[in-house]
Design goal:
By secondary structure, the chain is an alpha/beta fold. The chain folds into three domains: 210 residues, Rossmann fold (3-Layer(aba) Sandwich); 72 residues, Ubiquitin-like (UB roll); 99 residues, de novo design (two linked rop proteins) (Up-down Bundle), CATH 1.20.1440.230. The protein is built from 17 helices and nine strands. A five-stranded mixed sheet has the order 6-5-9-7-8, covered by helices on one side. The protein has a four-stranded parallel sheet with strand order 3-2-1-4, with helices on both faces. Strand 2, helix 7 and strand 3 form a beta-alpha-beta unit. The longest helix is centred in the C-terminal third of the chain and has 36 residues. The termini are far apart.
């Protein structure tokens, strides 16, 4: 494993005015795009395949393979869409990256667009991140003025325009096809697949949707090479990763480490548990990933390691909770979020999240019964794998994992209710 404190993606973040093109160019900025434009699109796609770069938005699909799905012919426009709609609870890696180093994303967009023969790139940013949108727009203007965007970039014959689009704040628009519908001006709801975006995406044209961190990794791969990139992380999940750590730690924030870093190592970097209160439970990739406990401190946080331990890496939104937190209460709060954010398109998610929230609210209020636990699991079973998109699957993860590891806490709420009923009858 590479030295966890050697910065790659975050190496410019603390530089003076790191978001300006002057600071970016002074620190190897826009050197990779010159190198990339001298090669062919096929060579770039192969380079990214060889690097083993996997999507940093949650699913972990190999980026090079995703790029190769784009058709080689240009009878229709090709589009690159950047998913910067960072809405997963606990996730805060893409907005800091765009705030501190927007030009790394722009350079990555140029490289990826050239590799996929796209001449128009859209960056879809969460609408609440107003300062981030302004900074991105300013960086795009700087790139146009410097000749990195527009017509005949660096006299290579390649043209590219970038549009920064502000979303309207719906969590569902983090799902790639719902994002495309929103970008087209329609209500953000997931589309039926197939056809997949690579065949019929934005405006029914071939489209690739990638996460901010995925695309921002491209310039480093072009400059360093695939072998260098593979020196970090693990064999099947190579490269560096930005881990967002929040909750009961002394120093919450973004920590860049090689993939496969454990929570024990991350806690050391974050100054340990806040006020010394022991760890109780945590999420490896946001609230839509099954929770872990203190027994999972040494699970390698990469795509395979998290899956083997019964969860998912997700967006590496590490939310840390100490022993003062009630698991049913935390699960209820997450479920209320998913109920609110369900787009309503499919019945399992629309109705299921409503009933899950109702039952949990009643239990936390001390009015639950032991049968409620079985009802929760039954409703979860009817949502998992049956909803239109992954929001439904994500909504049941906190509940099923919470009951798996902390069933006694749910039972305690039911026992409280039993005692109250007995007292009332007496």
């Amino acid at each position: 494993m590479a030295d966890p404190i050697t910065p790659v993606l975050t190496k410019r973040w603390l530089s003076p005015k790191s978001w300006t093109i002057q600071s970016y160019e002074a620190l190897e900025g826009y050197t990779a795009v010159r190198k990339a434009l001298k090669g062919t699109p096929e060579q770039l796609v192969q380079l990214v395949k060889d690097s083993g770069l996997r999507g940093r938005g949650g699913a972990g699909f190999p980026a090079g393979i995703k790029w190769s799905f784009m058709p080689p012919n240009e009878d229709k426009p090709h589009y690159l869409v950047i998913n910067a709609d960072e809405g997963e609870p606990g996730t805060c890696k893409d907005i800091p990256l765009m705030m501190a180093d927007p030009h790394s994303l722009i350079e990555g967009c140029i490289i990826a667009s050239y590799a996929m023969r796209s001449h128009h790139c859209f960056i879809y940013v969460r609408g609440e991140a107003l300062h981030c949108i302004r900074r991105l727009n300013a960086a795009v203007r700087e790139a146009y003025d410097a000749g990195y965007l527009g017509i005949d970039i660096l006299k290579s014959g390649f043209d590219l325009d970038i549009t920064v689009h502000a979303g309207a704040g719906a969590y569902i628009c983090g799902e790639e096809t719902a994002l495309l519908d929103s970008l087209e001006g329609r209500r953000g709801q997931p589309r039926l697949k197939p056809p997949f975006p690579a065949a019929a995406g934005l405006y029914a044209a071939p489209t690739t949707v990638n996460n901010v961190e995925t695309i921002a990794s491209a310039p480093f791969i072009v400059n360093g090479g695939s072998d260098w990139f593979r020196q970090m992380g693990r064999e099947k999940s190579p490269g560096p990763k930005i881990y967002s750590i929040s909750g009961h730690v002394e120093k919450p924030g973004q920590y860049e480490c090689p993939l496969g870093t454990t929570l024990r190592e991350l806690l050391d970097m974050a100054g340990g548990m806040k006020d010394g209160i022991p760890l109780k439970f945590w999420t490896p990739g946001g609230s839509s990933t099954p929770m872990f406990t203190a027994e999972h401190l040494d699970v390698p946080l990469d795509f395979e390691g998290a899956a083997e331990a019964g969860s998912m890496l997700g967006t590496t939104a590490v939310q840390v909770f100490n022993e003062t937190v009630s698991v049913p209460w935390a699960v209820m709060k997450w479920t209320q979020f998913y109920e609110h954010e369900s787009c309503g398109k499919c019945t399992p998610c629309r109705e299921g999240t409503y009933w899950l929230a109702q039952i949990l609210e009643r239990m936390v209020d001390g009015k639950g019964t032991e049968e409620d636990i079985d009802t929760l699991l039954d409703v979860c079973d009817n949502i998992l794998g049956r909803s239109f998109c992954a929001l439904g699957d994500g909504a049941v993860s906190p509940i099923t994992s919470g009951i798996k590891y902390f069933r006694d806490e749910f039972l305690a709420l039911c026992e409280t209710n039993k005692r109250e009923l007995v007292g009332a009858e007496a």
